[in-house]
Write a structure and sequence with these properties.
Layout: H1 2-23, E1 33-36, E2 51-59, E3 62-70, E4 73-80, E5 90-94, E6 106-109, E7 115-118, E8 124-127, E9 135-140, E10 146-150, E11 155-158, E12 166-168, E13 172-174, E14 180-184, E15 192-199, E16 204-208, E17 217-222, E18 232-243, E19 246-258, E20 270-276, E21 283-287, E22 293-298, E23 307-312, E24 332-336, E25 339-345, E26 348-350, E27 369-375, E28 377-379, E29 388-389, H2 392-400, E30 407-411, E31 416-420, E32 424-428, E33 434-441
The chain binds 2-acetamido-2-deoxy-beta-D-glucopyranose (6 copies).
Length: 443
């Protein structure tokens, strides 16, 4: 009895080990790597005026690098562009926004298949969490997607699943995955900025959240192509020839995957974006530091200045010009046709400058502030939030009793009220029914 038992145990153990060995294929030593953040900086001009060290992750026109914009605070990133000094190379993917690494940090693929970014002392800063998941190899694909492959060629992990502020052609936002892009704080500061581009169930939208506002405010949105009855699950950036038999014209657009597909709709919904008379395969979408969305294409058929800004979402020629960008005119300014035209003050409009700012109301006491009126202006939130229907006196008392309220907006024709926790950019509209009342201290 005893010997049968122990034999069973030995056989089970053998089977278990065999099973373990097969299912947990290790990364062959020749495919592992440890890349160290040390050595001289590269010579070429790159985005944000950064210093960089190229590492041996490469597939033309993509190059892995450690870069820094402030001393000893490095981002591990993928760069796009070719080595010609005239073309600033751009960062199209990053691992560690807001969590910079120091000198001698390592980026490594171990035999267990986990891809790890760690400090020199071993502290893990970022990882793919793919240990013992059957990874056999790392590869940079032609479209800039970095992948960890299993023995069947399937993706165990892909960089396309973790965008930050950039989408390459073929890359997606996913409900249940990363469903938004977050802007960068500034050229120098690689932390989250105030803007987000969000794929929502019924629309795509741009949001702004300043340090003082209580919640994000929509300043641009689009929904007409999606339909009320459907829910967005996947948005993919597509570049393709407009006609199968004419490869000279390319389309760039978002392909939407939705639930409840309309049976009468032969093609999935999409969002028109741009047409170009050249190959737009090497394009990325960027949510910029200024909150605008832009497509940039790298053109292999051009020598100098090969980057083309193919399309800007908020631009002079659309209903939503740059005046919809919350910080277009700084802390406080009046915008018209994408230009900052005036600085609204209690004594009327004065010339705009970057220093325009509303006087701070420091007291919550109604006896210590009053409002001044502006006519024919709107706030960026008005287009995409309906406002409450109420009397103007109610609207004002709501703002007065709310210390955080900096002013209110009122449309007299519909008696609609909006409370503002941020002023920033106001848009001039040719409509005297659109009023703004800005809080200002009595002295
Ligand atoms: C990085 O490592 C190299 C060699 O291992 C060493 O000489 C150098 O001092 C290290 N740099 C820092 C900043 O620790
Ligand atoms: C909404 O979806 C349901 C079921 O999927 C369908 O029966 C209905 O006709 C749809 N309505 C519209 C307006 O498309
Ligand atoms: C997202 O949509 C694209 C294009 O339709 C498709 O290739 C991709 O597999 C989809 N991803 C997921 C996770 O559904
Ligand atoms: C669309 O999304 C569904 C659910 O996420 C998925 O099963 C399907 O494969 C996707 N279709 C395409 C074309 O990506
Ligand atoms: C478009 O550019 C991509 C990337 O360089 C290339 O692979 C593809 O062959 C080009 N298409 C045509 C029709 O030239
Ligand atoms: C003012 O706004 C009202 C309602 O929103 C609109 O009907 C009217 O045409 C506008 N007038 C001008 C001059 O834009």
């Amino acid at each position: 009895m005893a010997s049968t038992n122990s034999r069973t145990i030995i056989i089970s153990l053998l089977c278990f080990h065999l099973f373990f060995f097969i299912s947990q294929a290790l990364v062959p030593s020749s495919e592992t790597f440890t890349l160290v953040n040390q050595g001289d900086f590269g010579d070429y001009i790159v985005e944000y005026g950064a210093n960089y060290r190229a590492i041996s992750i490469y597939r033309d026109p993509f190059q892995g690098c450690f870069y820094n914009t402030t001393p000893n605070a490095y981002t591990l990133a993928l760069r796009m562009g070719t080595v010609r000094s005239e073309n600033t190379m751009r960062w199209v993917w990053e691992a560690n926004r807001g969590k910079p690494v120091r000198e001698n940090a390592t980026f490594s693929l171990g035999r267990d298949g986990n891809l790890v970014l760690a400090e020199a002392d071993g502290e893990v800063v970022w990882q793919t969490n793919t240990a013992n998941k059957g990874v056999v190899r790392f590869e940079v694909l032609q479209n800039g997607n970095m992948v960890l492959l299993n023995s069947k060629g399937g993706f165990v992990w892909q960089s396309f699943s973790s965008p930050t502020d950039t989408l390459l052609v073929g890359q997606s936002l996913l409900a249940g995955g990363v469903s938004k892009l977050v802007s960068r704080a500034s050229e120098e500061n690689n932390n989250d900025g105030p803007y987000t581009f969000v794929m929502e169930p019924q629309r795509i939208a741009l949001y702004y959240k300043s340090s003082i506002s209580t919640r994000p405010t929509v300043y641009w949105a689009e929904n007409e192509e999606i339909g009320n009855n459907r829910t967005l699950t996947n948005l993919t950036l597509i570049s393709e020839p407009r006609y199968a038999d004419d490869l000279s014209i390319y389309l760039l657009y978002f392909l939407f995957n939705t639930t409840n597909k309309d049976p009468e709709q032969s093609t999935p919904p999409s969002s028109f974006a741009a047409i170009a008379r050249y190959n737009t395969t090497l394009t990325y979408l960027r949510l910029g530091i200024d909150g605008n969305l832009r497509y940039f294409t790298f053109r292999l058929d051009v020598y100098n200045f090969a980057w083309d800004r193919v399309y800007t979402f908020l631009n002079r020629d659309t209903d939503n010009n740059e005046c919809q960008l919350p910080e277009r005119c700084g802390k406080f300014g009046l915008c018209e046709d994408s230009q900052c035209v005036a600085c609204p003050t209690p004594n009327g409009l004065s010339g705009w400058s970057k220093d325009c700012e509303a006087k701070k109301v420091t007291s919550c006491k109604a006896s210590e502030f009053h409002y001044y009126k502006l006519e024919g202006v709107d706030h960026y939130m008005i287009k995409y939030t309906t406002g409450d229907v109420t009397k103007q006196s109610k609207c004002e008392s709501k703002c007065t009793s709310d210390c955080k309220c900096l002013g209110y907006f009122f449309h007299t024709d519909q008696s609609r009220c909006w409370i503002a926790y941020d002023l920033k950019t106001l848009t001039r509209v040719g409509n005297s029914t659109n009023l703004a009342y800005i809080k200002t201290p009595n002295k």
